[in-house]
Amino acid sequence: MGNPNSEKRSNSYLWFVSTVAAFGGLLFGYDAVVVSGTVSQVETQFSFSPAELGFYVSCVLWACMLGSAIAGWIADRFGRKNTLLAAAALLLVSAVWSATAGSVTGLLIARIIGGFGIGAATMVCPLYISEISPEVYRGRMVTLFQLTITVGIIMCVFANWGILTYAQGNTETLLPHWQKFLFVTENWRAMYLAEALPAIIFMATAFFIPKSPRWLMQQGRKDEALAVLKLFNSEQKAKETVDEIECTLIVDSNVKFGDLFTKKLRTPLILAILVCFMCEASGVSVVFYYGPQIFEDAGFGLGGSLGGFATIAIVNFIATLFALRFVDSAGRKKLLTVGVIGTVASHFLIGALFLGGVTGWPIVVAINIFVAFFACALGPVKFVLTSEIFPNKVRGKAIAISTFTIWAASATVAYLFPIMRDAMSTGFIFLAFAAELLIFFPVIYRMMPETKGKTIEEIERSWFHDDACKKVS
Length: 473
Fold this sequence. Notes:
Strand content: under 5%
Number of helices: 22
Shape: globular
Largest sheet: none
CATH class of the largest domain: Mainly Alpha
Order of helices and strands: HHHHHHHHHHHHHHHHHHHHHH
Structural class: mainly alpha
CATH topology of the largest domain: Growth Hormone, Chain: A
Distance between the termini: 26 Å
CATH architecture of the largest domain: Up-down Bundle
Number of strands: 0
Oligomer: single chain
Helix content: over 70%
CATH superfamily of the largest domain: MFS general substrate transporter like domains
């Protein structure tokens, strides 16, 4: 029987390391929302057309797409931890440069640099957490990444709101020139600069986490991998896990990246791509990148729209706590099914309200219903599922493809929304999102396995090898 005190220390350390690794999600959430507070001001200051506005918002997403794709190779070559540190550095540079950019070109370049950092973080954070976590905790540990996204969103919403309130209250106040410029005249710059603080914290804390044991095993560093696994497991369990990883690496010795596109491995790849695309094309990008503008369509002023958007951030956080509680007990498949039902229903409600000419708080409530169902299911499950269904040998690159899909869908939707909003009612746009999500049901029921309670190696064998490890033994 294991030592209860030792097990408690292991669990506490697991939570600490997973929270630090998930801090990349906080920056993702912060950066996802910071642009929404700047849109109205930047659009007016630089006289953007709908297409130019769409590019301003979506350029970071296109960069995220490329960053996540490249990060798979970097994480496999240099390690998950080093990739996290590089992502934090890019985000710090982006925050400072965005705040001090002297031209539209400079601002866009700074945003694109940040996009590379976010793309890398969203790819490697869930990957790292899944590789250090025991199977009984893996779902909730990876869901921590989604939870920190919601924390980042809340932080940014209130930071934006506070900066805007300060600016509106000090338009006639005598202040030093730099302070007036940064916090009043062009206060959107202060919104970007505030992101530097969480970037610094992420970079500082990431130095204290261990390397991924599964990456260490791929490098032939078995003793180091065993030492890391002992931090989170009993000695016996750590040894069994090392043996299991070693077995799958032997079985997978001939597996190459190109095999992901063959019959042997394409089923989990297609599943991951479909789940990531459906979740991200659900309309969540529109809500978080253009939330204040949607609320302006619903009759709110800029201050009121940011206030309504704050309710979304809070609901998003609370609903993610629900996912943290049930993703390992209820399972990924059941949770995702409930989430899709709720998001479809809420999109039909939002569409009907806009088309019926309803304004004000009913729109806020309806959008919050959508956010709640997304946050308790679609948001976390896509990260959990993609982090656990691929073979050890190609997991980094496979997750890079999945994350690439997330950002491709998000960037496309974010770019098209201003153009669509200029051409049709917002209500029709949300009805289109509902129609897209209806296609999700056959994907869940026909292709998606239940992975709760299984080790990464057990999931791998269920796809490809069956009892291959027993034969090797």
